[in-house]
Amino acid sequence: MYYFNRRENHKSGELVRGRPRRCKVRIRFTVPSQEAKAVAPLSPTLGQFGLTTSDFCKQFNEQSANYPAGLLLTVDLDVFIDRTFKFRIHNYHLSDLIHSIETGPRNRLLILDFYRLVTLYTSLFGGRFLSNTRTLVGVIRASKIKIVV
């Protein structure tokens, strides 16, 4: 599943030979981690700017290897005038993290799974354990999942 958003004529602060490197377009899209392939809709989108999709897929799959497979990651891709590119991977969304853990019957989450979820969230996003627990409890309540001891 891919979502695209683009901004044209973005100025980049990088210097090439003493001059700032001009960015032709900045594209924001969502790609499953470790599963980027040179097929539609990714291939036509990158191809219209003169980029080889296989190069992007290879670099993205290498950089997303430390994320769980299949999680949707948001990517900012800067395409420069000389047809080179640079991309940045954002952390995935909290709701995707919660829905990646299987719930039991009647949409219930075991307390042990909740503890693993809080420790994973703390290691990814930083912060304190107690404040992250409160954040996760609020999001879990909003998604109508019950925590069972």
Could you give a quick summary of the protein structure above?
The chain has 149 residues and is of the alpha+beta class. It is 36% helix and 30% strand. It is built from five helices and seven strands.
Task: Tell me what you see in this structure.
With 149 residues, the chain is an alpha+beta fold. The protein has two domains: 86 residues, Ribosomal protein L11/L12, N-terminal domain (Ribosomal protein L11, N-terminal domain), CATH 3.30.1550.10; 55 residues, no CATH class. The chain is built from five helices and seven strands. The strands form two sheets. Strands 1, 2, 3, 4 and 5 form a five-stranded antiparallel beta sheet that branches. Strands 6-7 form a two-stranded parallel ribbon. A hairpin with a 4-residue loop joins strand 4 and strand 5. Helix 4 crosses helix 5. 11% of the residues are buried.
Number of helices: 5
Unreliable spans are none
**What about the largest sheet?**
5 strands, antiparallel
Shape: elongated
- Helix and strand composition category: alpha+beta
**Cα-to-Cα separation, first versus last residue:** 35 Å
CATH architecture of the largest domain: 2-Layer Sandwich
Keywords for this entry:
149 residues, alpha+beta, Ribosomal protein L11, N-terminal domain, 2 domains, 5-stranded antiparallel beta sheet, two-stranded parallel sheet, 5 helices, 36% helix, 30% strand, elongated
